[in-house]
Amino acid sequence: MKLQRKNGLRAAALGALVVSGALVLTACGSDDNTSPSEGGTKTAAAPSNVDCGDAKGQLLASGSSAQKNAMDLWVKSYMQACPEVQVNYKASSSGEGIVAFNQGTVGFAGSDSALKPEEVEESKKTCAGGQGINLPMVGGPIALGYNLPGVDGLVLDAPTVAKIFNDKIKKWNDPAIAKLNPEAKLPSTAIQSFHRSEDSGTTQNLGKYLGKAAEKDWTYEAEKKWPAPGGQAASGSAGVAAQVKQVEGAIGYFELSYASSQDIPTVKIDTGASAPVEATSENASKAIAAAKVKGTGKDLALSLDYATKAEGAYPIVLVTYEVVCDKGNKAETLGAVKSFLGFTSSEEGQKVLSEAGYAPIPAEINAKVRETVKGLS
């Protein structure tokens, strides 16, 4: 018999969930696993109605650390409602999470990119009679942070960003930048661009954006390894953000939380809309709302429009997935997987993210996620 946890019955036990402020998406790929937030707190409401079902025991999961802060919110809230379940999400990297999933050592994996065909094929060895599928669960903006004293509200477009990161534009007063910022007093300071030193989904998603929106200036494949010449490498989004914070003339890319928590100004993107678009969760949600499901069957992998010109839509976005078996999940963890992912994909679970600064999955797509979770076997 399914056990419903009602808020009225468990208000005292659930209490208020206090989490670090400025939580958006932490580092992707092989990132550090620490929260970037510094100072400030935010109270997130505990879930009012979690279906614990017959879930019990330990649920192991691992993968993209882009999901770490989201998972921290969800796990703490869920385990208060369903104390018979111990959820342990190890934020390592998408690649490691998928390997663990295909080896059958975790109930689900977190990934910042959809499964490749060969990974789906490999998953069939673990998913008896089924295969691994992608369930989009949370999104957010990738910010371009910069350090240029005296210059506020810096505007760049995709071709200019591409030329900065592939070492074609070397000075901050370059005519291309000046044209986009006619009112700014741009210094002749040398541009110091920073990128990720290790494989990173953040790098891959930035590459997808530049490959679509600046295809003439960014001719590299969108891979997790940094492809372009020039620039300097730093470890994890935390490392890139630290360099941007410290080095005058610096620019780098990282999840918005790192900019918010360290007061690093971020670039507004000229997409061709009537006004440049700021990196905010709300603006990222507008871009993600235009996503289309490209997966087949129960697979819900998304195709994002990185070249969008929609008003107020911030185009450099990241969507992270939970990877599960559509069929053939282990009996001992199936109940917990369905219960936990049922909560994370619920309206209330997504609302927790919205209130904490994330970009929730669009309602129409999220409804498909919930239906798919119910049918897992």
From TrEMBL:
Q: Which GO terms describe its biological process?
A: phosphate ion transmembrane transport
The positions annotated for binding phosphate are: 64-66, 94, 112, 200-202
**Pfam families the record matches:** PBP_like_2
Q: Which SUPFAM superfamilies match?
A: Periplasmic binding protein-like II
Entry keyword set: Phosphate transport, Signal, Transport
Q: Which InterPro entries match?
A: ABC_phos-bd_PstS, PBP_domain, Phosphate-bind_PstS
The signal sequence is: 1-27
UniProt GO molecular function: phosphate ion binding
Q: Where is the PBP domain?
A: 55-348
| Entry GO CC | ATP-binding cassette (ABC) transporter complex
Family (UniProt): Belongs to the PstS family.
Annotated protein name in UniProt: Phosphate-binding protein
Which species expresses this protein natively?
Streptomyces solincola
Q: Which gene encodes it?
A: pstS
